């Protein structure tokens, strides 16, 4: 994912959520609807989350230091994880608390026309934000399914914005359902039901985001296709007959560490081995431009010892 694409989707979502949050708070003042209050807090939390993503992207661009020799690329993963925490603690828990409270102490919806007007406006604004996130994601998603893209993307911003926008749209539908049923039936508990539905939705999205960003924080390898290209590049010249083993690690969405033990001929000189390693590194960087840090260890290939062999490799 290009940084520009992710930033465009984040800014679009931030602009939509700020305007929607203001409108929802106005509607809450006039209606005293718990669904509207939950949606107001939801939009404020989303706005804060988009600001965190922008902050993470900026901090990740800092130059490497002796204390952080591989740079700060993973700051994007850290701030995406914070987004999940904020979404759960502020959005989900508040909505669940407010829903339970209003279910136990229901109140009628006053001035429902404000709620309907704001919810319709918010749905239209969220559709435009969601459309931007979809367009930017399609530029990098390839033939992956949406779920696979969210699960496997090494760039956290677009999956986060996609899930937030989807959650926002569904939350608005739930709020519209709760307010409508409360107005039609005259029973304020329906408003509380809509609020509880919003809380459960936000909690589910927060859990998915937390699990995926936790995996990125711990450290994920490159995908199978990328690793195949790396192996192909390493063995694409006469200097490297075989890759004995390969390890990859994402230092950030656009920075990959490659460590490999490669076979060299037993009679190669040190100078020949060094030239071969340099050539192999150039091929890898050409095939996988995000391979910024490459460590290649030359070795002699040894066939795996038979199962019944002694520790020194001779037959038992």
Automatic annotation (TrEMBL):
Keywords: Membrane, Transmembrane, Transmembrane helix, Transport. The chain crosses the membrane at residues 9-30, 77-97, 109-128, 160-184, 190-211. Pfam families: Cation_efflux (PF01545). One of its GO terms (cellular component) is membrane. It is found in: Membrane. InterPro entries: Cation_efflux, Cation_efflux_CTD_sf, Cation_efflux_TM, Cation_efflux_TMD_sf, SLC30A9. Its main location: membrane. One of its GO terms (molecular function) is monoatomic cation transmembrane transporter activity. It comes from the Bacteria. Residues 11-217 form the Cation efflux protein transmembrane domain. It is a multi-pass membrane protein. One of its GO terms (biological process) is zinc ion transport. The keyword Kinase does not apply. This is Transporter. It comes from Sinosporangium siamense.
